[in-house]
Amino acid sequence: MPDEIKEWKWLSDQVWLDLLEPMLSDDSALADRAAKLWHYLMVEIESGPEGITNAAVCLENALRLTFPFTTTYQTCMALFQESLGDDFPAKENSLEVLSEAIVRVRTARKRAGRSPRKNGSKSSRRSR
Fold first, then answer.
1. Could you tell me the residue range of the domain that residue 14 belongs to?
2. Around Cβ 83, how many Cβ atoms within 10 Å?
3. Which of 16, 79, 106, 115 is in the most buried spot, having the most CB atoms within 10 Å?
């Protein structure tokens, strides 16, 4: 039973209001576009198997396009950029590359936390 409650939580009005209200409260044109999208998805789902597939593809696209706005994306980008360094070992397995990048980024953050910059300066070496 607790798993069913968790599932229904994601279908509640409050989840949608928490997400949509900040985005749509001041932009009725955007709210109209969102309403048309929800309507399109419902029509597709109700149309049968092909429509269900179309709706699923639409939601997969929404998830893919949402990703760059997440904190996970920002972390992934930092790890990717770390892995591009000249001193980074070439590896065939992307999980090994990310694991190495995680180790390096964590180490750099720990060092930065232990040794604050002199005079609180935040300027880069180039600007000096």
1. 2-67
2. 19
3. 79
